[in-house]
Request: fold
Amino acid sequence: MSSASFTYTVFTEPALARTAFAALVAREPEALSVVASVTEGLVADPARGVGPRWWAGTDEAGEVVAAFMHTPPRHLHIAYATPEQGRGLAALLADSHDTLPGAGGLREPTEAFADEWVTRTGVTATVSMEIGRFDLPVRPRIPFEVPGGFRVATTADAHVVDQWHQQFYEAIDGPGALASSLDRHLALGRVGLWVHDGRPVSMAYASPVNGGVTRVSGVWTPPELRGRGYASGVVAALSSARQDAGESCILYTDLANPTSNAIYQAMGYRRVGDNVDFTFTA
Reply:
């Protein structure tokens, strides 16, 4: 689809999408973190996704200025766009009789996309989550003592890492949600464990770096081990390790969870952006 000043180009090959978004990732690495890391993962292992699509929005000068991604069965991800560009893609997909389970991403263009989608398709859009984006401009700190210590996970930890990552996904997306593999993260030394009394008690991982930015995610402590500061310990230590490697850290949190938001802010993370996620129902 094109207009006098704006064009949407769709890609179905991850390597082509990576090339198309490279300059925008370099300019807006925090906003493009999810697109960049997911795309890199699909380049490395195309079997991870079925039917992925990316849309690059190009202005009249030929510069990519907007980024959208859909990796079924997840919701469409609106990484970077104006509200007008969000509405434009919704119109394009609705006119093509596309179907979507939902849309999430940067608040204003995602709200505009959802409004246009509802108008054109007659579905109902319900806010399923409001999300804060946080960066880390300082060295992380923990204002209390946490028993145990940090270590980088190895392939020998794959069983517990896979088990906890699956539990994390099901907690976010519901029973039956299938977690992506962390084998690549393990091989690159990007999964951290907090260990107490000789056994892992909490985990987190950092996405491969893109544009100098890594995203800390997958923070998980088994329910019976919570309330002891283990998650704070692993996030702070993993963030410090990535800073030592010359990377900038970001993370996303559910704004409906005041406990985790307070913990991350006490650690030194600061809220720098808002995302929203909509579920579409007939």
Q: What stands out?
A: Residues 158-173 form the longest helix (16 residues).
